[in-house]
Automatic annotation (TrEMBL):
SUPFAM superfamilies: Cupredoxins (SSF49503). It is a lipid-anchor; GPI-anchor. GO terms for molecular function: electron transfer activity. Residues 1-26 form the signal peptide. This is Phytocyanin domain-containing protein. The keyword Ribosomal protein does not apply. The keyword NAD does not apply. Residues 26-130 form the Phytocyanin domain. Residues 133-153 are annotated as: Disordered. It is found in: Cell membrane. Keywords: Disulfide bond, Glycoprotein, GPI-anchor, Lipoprotein, Membrane, Signal. Belongs to the early nodulin-like (ENODL) family. One of its GO terms (cellular component) is side of membrane.
Length: 180
C-alpha cells in the first residue's frame, strides 16, 4: 500500500468515526400526513401539532421543516408559549418555508406569530432527547439562560448533516481506486 493510500485510509477512518460519533440527522415535516403544513388546526383537532410531536423522537441536529402561507413560526419561552405571544421571540421566520435546527437537548416551544392562531391550537412543544446522556432526557429548557442559547439562523446546517454513511462509502471506494 502506497503512502498516499495510507493517508487516504487514515483520513477516511477519521471522517467515518466523526460521522458515527456525530450521528445522522433527520428532517421532519411538521404535521406530516395530519395537516397541510403549519396552519390553524381544525376545531375538532386543536392539539394536532403536540400529538404529532409526541409521536416522533427528536435528537440534537434534527431539523423541523415548516411550510405555510401568510403565517410565521416563532420559538418562545415556556411562559410565552402559555400566553400565546412574545414581543421578542427567540426565533422568528415568516418566509413560508422555514427550516429550524434542533441544536440542543430539551424543550422547544413553537407558536404561530399571527394573532389568534396560537389560541386555536397552532402551537407545539418539541422534546429533543440527549442521546449522549439519556438520563438527562427530561431536562427542561424553560430557564432563560437555556432559552437564550436557542436563538437560531433559519437555514443553519451542520457540517456533516447532509453526508450519509453510503456517501462516505462511495467516496472511500472511488478514492481508494484513484489512489490505487
Amino acid at each position: 500500500m502506497s503512502s498516499s493510500s495510507k493517508v487516504f485510509l487514515i483520513l477516511f477512518v477519521c471522517i467515518f468515526s466523526l460521522l458515527i460519533l456525530h450521528g445522522t440527522s433527520t428532517e421532519f415535516e411538521v404535521g406530516e400526513k395530519l395537516t397541510k403544513g403549519w396552519e390553524v388546526p381544525l376545531p375538532k383537532h386543536p392539539h394536532v401539532y403536540n400529538e404529532w410531536a409526541q409521536k416522533n423522537r427528536f435528537k440534537v441536529n434534527d431539523t423541523l421543516h415548516f411550510r405555510y402561507k401568510k403565517d410565521s413560526v416563532m420559538v418562545v419561552t415556556n411562559s410565552e408559549y402559555d400566553k400565546c405571544g412574545s414581543a421578542q421571540p427567540l426565533f422568528f421566520s415568516n418566509n413560508g418555508d422555514t427550516t429550524f435546527v434542533l441544536d440542543r437537548p430539551g424543550l422547544f416551544y413553537f407558536i404561530s406569530g399571527v394573532t389568534g392562531h396560537c389560541p386555536k391550537g397552532q402551537k407545539m412543544i418539541v422534546k429533543v432527547l440527549d442521546v449522549e446522556n439519556s438520563s438527562d432526557d427530561d431536562q427542561q429548557s424553560g430557564n432563560q439562560t437555556a432559552a437564550e442559547d436557542t436563538k437560531k439562523k433559519s437555514d443553519a446546517t451542520q457540517a456533516l448533516g447532509h453526508w450519509s454513511l453510503p456517501s462516505f462509502m462511495v467516496l472511500f471506494i472511488v478514492g481508494y481506486h484513484i489512489m490505487g
